[in-house]
């Protein structure tokens, strides 16, 4: 959807052509005499000493540029190209000239040409698009929608204007509004696939943490466009089972410009706020120090306590009595910078740096109390005289001096994540339809998660000794002492080198030819993986390492790929065919006794057909075989004996076989529709089975390729571009996603040391199997004064597995056999444009979940470590009573001989309620 945007002004300036020099008087006399004497021969000779120039002007994709101006510098000769970009200049005197091409919205290109007598010189031009900011007469035009006549894939587009005008916090929320996409818990599921099956690509470089398949996050003002490929992936896309997100970042223009935006939900004091939210974002760019060089820089800082605000305190600095600075429960900063060198019209070099950092505190309902705990110094045990600190009763008030203050939320882990990407890209257009790209990049992910910056041996806790069952207020459901028993350090570095080459072969179809568009390329990646995670970190194991459940490794592995694909146009039909070769190595650090094949290879064919029925209709079909290497944590983890699960270096790539049928229809110049049907079979998914550890007489859950799934569905998209004061978009998806498991860790121990003995024997609905999903957006307004954008979302209920209080083991027939209620939200963003102090200003009001709908987000949030409670309590409570929010069993209160429920009202169960933010933007 493209909402209204402010129009620039266009000034038409006539080209300044050179003038002929004046002849001397003597030359004029001589010429006149010769002309009078030899009239006939002179005319005949002049006609013989001329030639002609012809050619075609195309853009980067090889399509003709209509009505471009062509002229010979230093003369008054020239002309205009026709609708197909072709031109001819006749009666050009013999000689060497410079031919120049100009077209609005494109860079000016010049080429030398030699004109010979009675001959036609051919000069073809390829000109690149170039953003311009012009002044003068206001020119308004309709934005037309173009159908993809040669494409057999299914794509959804999110523009930079969408990200500015819609009430979304990041580009993933905007993607979640599209047909074929289900958003659940911050994860995007493309056409029924798992959340880790979507590959994010930024300017041609894959951005995926090989450890856990997470992609980069960018600020809203950093994104130029986002293209989602949900089906029909060409051979150039690999290591993605479900789809691809293609992100393009913004580049600077030839003049300095940008904007600053500020949003907040703080209306005075802290208690007059929804989530204590503030966001400052900016994006600006322009010409750099050197000629033909531009830059663009964007920053987005978001600071909020979130709707899951805990009772932890955060240091705050106050300036001028109303400016408050300091960390909050969730803090993130996203910085992006790009430097562009346009060396020639056909050569472009980009340097880019992306730096993200976040600092997030957790919310855990059982670790969210502030009060006082009784402390006892016990010297009775052990008998060596060591004094042991023991914690007793808890109280909201300090009963006596033996009660010390305790804020359990401050003893939860704080997670710090850092991301750094540096990249260099080179694009060179060699001729009409011939382009190659080279890219090199380095990406680094770092994650730390700990309590109060403590090292493992500094943690204060014993396993499950957080609760005193005596003298306890509100029962043994809340933690009253100790540190949350988790410590984690992860660092991943990926080096990438890739490139591609494309060339058009044969005559264009409009000239009676059957052209090919051949493309080939490949990539090489090298991963450096470091990992340390431990639960109960202050427990010393028999190997002298801290952590009762410890997993640690450092591994290196290379991988690469190569592809060839062709787009062949024949008699109005387009064939897209390709083949891809992928290569993955586990490295040489694991013993040969454990590895069957160190190098694994896959070949995946792709074939699609696009058939334009008319200039308004296109049908397409695509078949593809897709592969994805498992997250590296499932390959390398658990090499220590104390780990609770073990990676498998013999894992094979997971596989999807995909079919899709698509139809595009252009109803009018403003209204476009897209319809699709898809079928996917997915196998080789990960799960765990007990396997013996070589050299040890024990078994441990080990990851294997044993799960499978399938999905099928129907998608419909209707888009109306902005005209007559409004724009809109409607997306509908009917999907059916089933499989043997939703999570690779489903078969791990779930209660104590009990194994899930009953394995699924048939496909069941997956956790994200939302059968019906509808999203609608509506944008109203005019380009001068105001704009209002509304977003409505509806989804049928997600499945869940019912549990009973007396249950000992799970019945496999009940897995995801029931449905939660449907969910719906209504959000909006209003904008008021005005001008003050010589600047364009915008006032914003943004509201999410305006109807304050109570939508269930997570029926069973994490209750680890369980202590003395049943970790399935929330589920059992909902199954028995139909009430969500969480509860634990307590003593019998009504005399029926059964324990009664004690509700705890855990806010993690529900989505965020209504929020209202205001903002101010400045454009310059």
Tell me about this structure.
This protein has 924 residues and is mainly beta. The protein has a domain at 17-137: Carboxypeptidase-like, regulatory domain (Immunoglobulin-like). 5% of the residues lie in helices and 50% in strands. It is built from 6 helices and 49 strands. The protein is globular and about 115 Å long. The two termini are 25 Å apart. The model is unreliable at 1-48 and 132-143 (pLDDT under 50).
Name the descriptors.
single chain, globular, disordered N terminus, 924 residues, mainly beta, 5% helix, 5-stranded mixed β-sheet, 22-stranded antiparallel beta barrel, Immunoglobulin-like
Which secondary structure elements does this structure contain, and how are they paired or packed?
Layout: E1 9-10, H1 25-37, H2 39-48, E2 50-58, E3 69-72, E4 78-80, E5 86-93, E6 95-102, E7 109-115, E8 120-122, E9 125-126, E10 137-138, E11 154-159, H3 160-165, H4 171-175, E12 181-184, E13 187-190, E14 198-202, E15 205-206, E16 223-231, E17 243-249, E18 257-266, E19 273-287, E20 293-304, E21 317-319, E22 323-325, E23 330-344, E24 347-361, E25 370-378, E26 388-395, E27 403-407, E28 414-431, E29 434-450, E30 486-505, E31 516-535, E32 549-570, E33 573-585, E34 599-612, E35 617-628, H5 633-636, E36 654-666, E37 671-692, E38 699-723, E39 726-739, E40 764-765, E41 772-782, E42 786-795, E43 799-800, E44 818-819, E45 823-836, E46 839-848, H6 873-881, E47 887-890, E48 900-903, E49 915-923
Parallel strand pairs: 2-8, 2-9, 14-17
Antiparallel strand pairs: 1-10, 2-5, 3-4, 3-6, 6-7, 11-16, 12-13, 14-15, 16-17, 18-19, 18-49, 19-20, 20-23, 21-22, 23-24, 24-28, 25-26, 25-27, 28-29, 29-30, 30-31, 31-32, 32-33, 33-34, 34-35, 35-36, 36-37, 37-38, 38-39, 39-40, 39-41, 41-42, 42-45, 43-44, 45-46, 46-49, 47-48
């Amino acid at each position: 959807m493209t909402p209204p945007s402010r129009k620039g002004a266009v000034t038409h300036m006539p080209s300044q052509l050179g003038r002929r020099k004046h002849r001397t008087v003597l030359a004029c006399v001589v010429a006149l005499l010769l002309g009078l004497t030899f009239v006939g021969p002179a005319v005949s000779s002049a006609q013989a000493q001329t030639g002609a120039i012809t050619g075609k002007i195309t853009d980067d994709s090889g399509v003709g540029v209509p009505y471009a101006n062509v002229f010979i510098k230093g003369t008054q000769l020239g002309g205009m190209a026709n609708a197909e970009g072709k031109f001819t200049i006749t009666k050009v005197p013999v000689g060497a000239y410079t031919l120049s091409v100009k077209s609005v919205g494109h860079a000016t290109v010049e080429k030398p040409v030699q004109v010979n007598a009675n001959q036609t010189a051919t000069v073809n031009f390829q000109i690149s698009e170039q953003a311009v900011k012009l002044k003068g007469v206001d020119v308004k035009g309709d934005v037309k929608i173009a159908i993809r006549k040669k494409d057999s894939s299914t794509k959804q587009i999110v523009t930079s204007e969408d990200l500015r005008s819609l009430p979304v916090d990041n580009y993933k929320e905007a993607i979640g509004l599209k047909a074929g996409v289900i958003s659940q818990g911050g994860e995007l599921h493309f056409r029924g696939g798992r959340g880790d099956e979507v590959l994010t690509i930024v300017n041609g470089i894959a951005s995926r943490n090989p450890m856990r398949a997470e992609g980069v996050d960018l600020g809203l003002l950093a994104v130029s466009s986002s293209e989602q490929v949900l089906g029909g992936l060409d051979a150039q896309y690999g290591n993605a089972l479900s789809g691809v997100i293609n992100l393009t970042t913004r580049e600077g223009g030839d003049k300095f410009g940008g904007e600053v935006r500020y949003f907040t939900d703080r209306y005075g004091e802290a208690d007059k706020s929804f989530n204590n939210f503030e966001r400052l974002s900016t994006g600006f760019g322009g010409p750099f120090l050197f000629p033909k060089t531009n830059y663009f820089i964007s920053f987005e800082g978001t600071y909020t306590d979130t709707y899951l605000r805990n009772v932890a305190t955060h240091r705050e600095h106050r300036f001028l009595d109303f400016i408050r600075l300091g960390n909050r429960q969730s803090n993130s900063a996203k910085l992006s910078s790009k430097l562009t060198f346009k060396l020639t019209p056909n050569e472009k070099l980009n340097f880019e740096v992306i730096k993200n950092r976040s600092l997030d505190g957790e919310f855990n309902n059982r670790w969210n109390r502030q009060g006082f705990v009784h402390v006892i110094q016990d010297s009775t045990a052990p008998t060596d005289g060591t004094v042991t600190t023991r914690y007793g009763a808890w109280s909201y008030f300090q009963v006596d001096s033996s009660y010390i203050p305790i804020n359990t939320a401050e003893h939860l882990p704080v997670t710090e994540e850092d991301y750094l990407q540096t990249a260099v890209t080179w694009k060179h257009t060699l001729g009409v339809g011939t382009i190659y790209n080279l890219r090199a990049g380095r990406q680094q992910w770092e994650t730390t998660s700990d309590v109060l910056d403590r090292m493992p041996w500094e943690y204060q806790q014993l396993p499950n000794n957080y609760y005193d069952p005596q003298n306890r207020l509100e029962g043994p459901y809340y933690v009253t002492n100790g540190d949350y028993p988790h410590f984690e350090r992860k660092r991943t570095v990926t080096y990438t080198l890739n490139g591609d080459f494309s060339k058009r072969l044969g005559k264009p179809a409009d000239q009676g030819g059957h052209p090919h568009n051949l493309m080939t390329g490949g990539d090489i990646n090298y991963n450096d993986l470091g990992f340390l995670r431990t639960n109960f970190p202050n427990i010393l194991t028999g190997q002298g390492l801290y952590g009762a459940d410890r997993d640690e490794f450092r591994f290196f592995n290379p991988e690469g790929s190569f592809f060839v694909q062709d787009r062949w146009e024949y008699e109005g039909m387009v064939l897209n065919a390709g083949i891809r070769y992928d290569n993955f190595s586990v490295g040489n650090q694991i013993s040969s006794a454990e590895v069957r094949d160190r190098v694994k290879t896959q070949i995946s064919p792709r074939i699609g057909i696009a058939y334009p029925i008319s200039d308004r209709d296109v049908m397409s079909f695509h078949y593809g075989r897709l592969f994805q290497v498992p997250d590296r944590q499932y390959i390398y983890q658990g090499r220590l004996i104390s780990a609770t699960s073990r990676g498998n270096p013999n894992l094979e790539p997971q596989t999807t076989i995909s079919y899709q049928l698509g139809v595009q229809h252009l109803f009018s110049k403003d209204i476009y529709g897209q319809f699709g049907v898809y079928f996917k079979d997915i196998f080789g998914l990960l799960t765990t089975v007990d396997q013996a550890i070589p050299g040890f007489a024990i078994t441990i859950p080990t990851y294997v390729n044993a799960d499978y799934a399938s999905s099928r569905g129907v998608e419909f998209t209707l888009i109306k571009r902005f005209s007559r004061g409004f724009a809109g978009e409607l997306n509908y998806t009917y999907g059916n996603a089933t499989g043997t498991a939703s999570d690779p860790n489903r078969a791990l121990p779930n209660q104590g040391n009990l194994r899930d003995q009953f394995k699924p024997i048939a496909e069941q609905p997956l956790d994200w199997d939302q059968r019906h999903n509808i999203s609608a957006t509506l944008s109203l307004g005019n380009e001068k004064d105001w704009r209002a954008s509304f977003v409505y979302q509806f989804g049928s209920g997600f499945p869940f597995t019912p549990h009973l209080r007396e249950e000992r083991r799970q019945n496999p027939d009940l897995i995801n056999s029931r449905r939660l209620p449907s969910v719906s939200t209504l959000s909006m963003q209003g904008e008021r444009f005005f001008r003050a102090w010589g600047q364009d200003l915008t006032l914003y009001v943004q509201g999410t979940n305006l109807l304050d709908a109570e939508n269930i987000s997570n029926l069973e949030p994490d209750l680890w470590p369980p202590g003395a409670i049943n970790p399935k309590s929330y589920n059992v409570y909902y199954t028995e009573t139909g009430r969500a929010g969480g509860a634990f069993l307590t003593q019998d209160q009504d005399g029926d001989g059964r324990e009664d429920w004690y509700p705890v009202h855990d806010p993690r169960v529900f989505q965020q309620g209504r929020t209202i933010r205001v903002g101010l933007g400045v454009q310059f």
